Amino acid sequence: MIRIKIGLSAILLLLLACSPEKALIKKAREMNTIEGYKNYLAEYEEGRYTEEAVQKISGIRFAHRRDSAFVSLIQKLKTGVKPAGAVLRIQPSDKVLMGTPVSVKLDHLPPNTTATLHAYRRRWGGLVYSFATFQSDPQGHILLDQLPPVQGTYTIADSLGIFWSMSWPAQKDKEMPFVIRELKENTVCFNLEIDHEVVSAKTLELMEKLPNIVTEQIHTDSLTAVFHYPENQRNLPVLILVAGGSKEEFDWNHRMTQIIASNGYASLSLPYNHIKPLPEYLEKVPLEYFFHAVDWVRQQPVVDPQKIIIAGGSRGGELALLLGSMDPDIHGVVAISPSCVVWQGLPHNPFNLISPKAAWTFNGKDIPFMKHRIHWPTLWKIINGGGQIEMMYFHEKPLEDPSKIEQTRIRVENIRGPVLFIAGKDDRMWPSYAMCRMMQQRLDSLQFGYPVQELYYEHAGHRVIAPDLMPTIDYQYEGTKFGGTDSGNANAQIDAWKEMIGFLNTYFKEDGT
Q: What confidence score (pLDDT) does residue 17 get?
């Protein structure tokens, strides 16, 4: 009977993949115009556009506005900057470590004058750009945290808006001035335009590490990791950051651990899959691998073996809590958008979700896991490629069963040190906020003997922490729905990073700084 069920589901998915809606969406995508989406998707829903159509129409309008402003800026840059007394100021300086709060200030403008702030930087090899047009006050000031733009790539008063609203303009590199073509990664360029002329230009360099950070690549039969630490120091607290082993995840993890080391820690970037000797996918990953990494860290002469912290986000947050609950040599946990239970493994083939395997093993045995509820409309979307995938539907229903929670819950009360929970209240990947609250309530009821700190953000989603001031506006166009608003995510990310460093300093540095 099970085989028949799966077979019927596969047939249904195949039929959906060939549906009229998919053909119409494909045709509209090829046109890539507002009219294309209106015309072709109106046929399908008789004028009642699908969510994807509405989003795409809005996106095309946004792109036209952004590209027009960028083309105009390029033309003005070809004639050079013409100083006119206005001041574009970056505080605290034009070169800072990622995670340092920065602000952009516009002073000494003509009173009640229209001015446009442009910004651009490299991201994943491409160029991202934003702009905002303001009206200066009678004193010639523009305060980005108090004044909403008249027009731009964002529309609210937000000091980080010029950063989080960047996206990819349509222009190719060869069409741009040399100064833009040769722009280095992690350098943000700002131009201030008044009366159709660029009157001020500044750059902000965001450093991934300080000059005194030593980096060691670890490649052995039993461990693949990257170790960072400040040179000529001893007895350092060490943070082990676990993340998926895909190139993008590993690069992100490597960047984060460099920044953490620059804050006065040793740090280890440790993947949990996709890199030898680990499995390719998140299935049957042996926990012994991570316990071996903790033992390796304890033996390093720069490390204080009594100050080992483990951190992770999403499934890495689940793993960090699980390891912290099992290993007495771990003395603190930072859990970002985590889970309170152990979930099933994640295979490459979506059909294997129906007969799941364990994500983690110990001593050759599966760690008991919570199974997803198969949400067929979402699974069809995954196969069909029709719009954003909301993984929340796989996780909500199973958490309504107390008996299943008890069988698969992480024994957080066994952690031997301070714990920091970080989550966005609008997480659409899974209910991380609700799961954090469940763990917090359990720790309270058991009178947990170590400090517990919570950071919850009202308008943030799954990606709730990052120090690099990267755009968040593009989350709404990705294949998976993460939740939160553009502004809410960006502000949570920089605040959560600052608070996390503060948590580490408070509990793992003698002077607390």
A: 46
pTM: 0.89
Q: Please name the residues in contact with 58: beta carbons below 8 A apart, sequence gap of 6 or more.
A: none
| Chain position carrying tokens 């760690």 | 367
Is the predicted pLDDT of residue 159 greater than 80, yes or no?
yes
pLDDT greater than 60 at residue 47: no
Report the distance separating Cα 269 and Cα 227, nearest Å: 6
Residue 238's closest CA among 297, 290, 287?
A: 297
Token readout for 179 is 């100064």
Exposure string (b/e) for 374-392, b if CB count within 10 Å is 16 or more?
A: ebeebbbbeebebbbbbbb
Domains and CATH numbers, the chain: 17-77 (no CATH), 87-207 (2.60.40.2240), 213-508 (3.40.50.1820)
111 to 68, 138, 142: CA distances (angstroms)? 26, 5, 10
Strands 114-123, 187-194: pairing kind:
antiparallel
Listed residue (102, 108, 105) closest to 117, CA to CA? 105
Whether 477 contacts 435, CB under 8 Å:
no
Instruction: Report pLDDT digits (tens) over 394-428.
Output: 899 999 999 999 999 999 999 999 999 999 999 99
Q: Kindly report, residue by residue over 200-215, the tens digit of the pLDDT.
A: 999 999 999 999 999 9
